[in-house]
Amino acid sequence: MKLHGAEIVDTFAEAFPMWGARVVITAATPEWALEAGRSMTGFATSVIGCKCEASIERALDPDETPDGRPGVSALLFAMDQEGVGKRLVERVGQTVLTCPTTACFDGLDAEDTVDVGGQLRYFGDGYQASKVLDGRRYWRVPVMEGEFLVQERFGVVEGVAGGNIIIFARDHETALHAAQAAASAMREVEGAIMPFPGGIARSGSKVGSRYSALPASTNDALCPTLRGQVEHTDVPPDVEAVFEIVIDGLALEPVRETMRRGLVAAAEAGASHVTAGNYGGNLGPHHIYLRELVP
């Protein structure tokens, strides 16, 4: 299949279930909200090594937040509900509670919930106080600046992780340009994130390694510099650089739409090929075929 001169490989991305939560962080200024959001989602690129995957979803205007202040929404994913709860307590406690002027709220109306503010309240050392508004409990935790307001419970849903597109180009500059164009287009989809730095991974991995201590290692079949050294390569002779974009979403459809927008944007920006990674259908139940995304 051809799209704007790029070869769209007839394959599929293989995605799998992960549990996700949406965190709404507000602050006195957009800058402080963004600072807290960046800190909370830092070092959360892959569940393989980080226990969770997270990124800022979008900026929020004051009329979109519970307390009428500027904010950001962020999505965080882990392998189960318990994992989401643990990571939220750790990250909100270490990065949002500590950040000047912030408050933190649940961003999902979900049946399943995890306790976040109910754990963080103990930082108040007995001076914390709570109030129930519209059936939801909020905790006010005293801090040196004043008070940190945090919702007690956060909704969690079974989402979809591991959606991906892989972008090839004939030179490094074009490959990076195509990947950046794709990531920019993909950020417009609500309910999905791309957890790697800037949304882009240069170091796609495969399961396993010749070193027993490593659960994953470099995807040698997609490394241009290894074309002549490996038994099998997926890199065409005229391709110099490859980038991968991984997507997590609160549901399957946002992941599909994010992949669709990225595929089109990468092709328009000069990619020579666009493909996707899978494990032959053995990893996850969600198979997103690229041919179904080509307009």
Tag the structure with descriptive keywords.
295 residues; elongated; 35% strand; alpha+beta; two-stranded antiparallel sheet
**Dominant shape:** elongated
Report the uncertain regions: none
Beta-strand fraction estimate: 35-45%
Order of helices and strands: EEEHHEEHEEHEEEEHEEEEHEE
Average pLDDT number: 97
User: Percentage of helical residues?
Assistant: 10-25%
Largest sheet: 15 strands, mixed
The quaternary structure here is: single chain
Give the N-to-C terminal Cα separation: 11 Å
Radius of gyration: 21 Å
Discrete helix count: 6
- Could you tell me the number of beta strands? 17
- Which structural class fits the helix and strand makeup? alpha+beta
Topology:
Blueprint: E1 2-3, E2 6-8, E3 12-26, H1 30-41, H2 47-50, E4 53-60, E5 71-78, H3 81-96, E6 103-106, E7 112-115, H4 117-120, E8 129-133, E9 136-143, E10 146-151, E11 153-169, H5 172-186, E12 192-193, E13 205-207, E14 216-218, E15 241-249, H6 252-268, E16 273-275, E17 286-289
What does this structure look like?
By secondary structure, the protein is α+β, with helices and mostly antiparallel strands. The protein is 23% helix and 35% strand. It is built from 6 helices and 17 strands. The strands form 2 sheets. The protein has a 15-stranded mixed beta sheet that branches. Strands 13-14 form a two-stranded antiparallel ribbon. The chain is elongated. The chain starts with a strand and ends in a 6-residue tail after the last strand. The mean pLDDT is 97.
